[in-house]
Amino acid sequence: MLAEAVEHLIKNIVDFPDDVSVKSHENNRGELLRVRVNPEDIGRVIGRGGRTANAIRTVVQALADHKVRVDIMDVR
């Protein structure tokens, strides 16, 4: 559920929504959501000073009932 929510959120703020993918991985530190976006959208997703990325992480933590990390990377 979290991966779909993050994907929907990010697809609405990027210029290339078809390049967005979110994969969920479980490890000993909790859940990890790996977000991949087009290189031209990475600045838009991270935001000035990381504000947008922090807002996305805050929304994810509010939706989750466990520890979740969100990693944002570009597709190369």
Describe this structure in words.
This protein starts with a helix and ends with a strand. The chain is an alpha+beta fold and 76 residues long. It has 3 helices and 3 strands, in the order αββααβ. It has one domain: K homology (KH) domain (GMP Synthetase, Chain A, domain 3). The chain is globular and about 30 Å long. The longest helix has 13 residues, at 51-63. The model has no long low-confidence stretch (mean pLDDT 92). Keywords: Cytoplasm, RNA-binding. Belongs to the KhpA RNA-binding protein family. A probable RNA-binding protein. It comes from Bifidobacterium primatium.
Summarize this entry quickly.
This protein has 76 residues and is α+β, with helices and mostly antiparallel strands. The chain has helices at residues 2-11, 42-46, 51-63; strands spanning 21-27, 30-37, 68-74.
What is the CATH topology assignment? GMP Synthetase, Chain A, domain 3
What's the CATH first level?
Answer: Alpha Beta
Largest sheet: 3 strands, mixed
Corresponding CATH superfamily: K homology (KH) domain
Number of domains: 1
Q: What is the succession of H and E elements?
A: HEEHHE
CATH architecture: 2-Layer Sandwich
Beta-strand residue percentage: 25-35%
Structural class by helix and strand composition: alpha+beta
Shape category: globular
Helix fraction, binned, reads 25-40%
Whole-Å distance between the termini?
A: 26 Å
Low-confidence stretches: none
Report strand order across the widest sheet: 1-2-3
Gyration radius, in Å:
12 Å
Helical segment count: 3
Number of strands: 3
Family: Belongs to the KhpA RNA-binding protein family.
GO molecular function: RNA binding
Subcellular location: Cytoplasm
Main location: cytoplasm
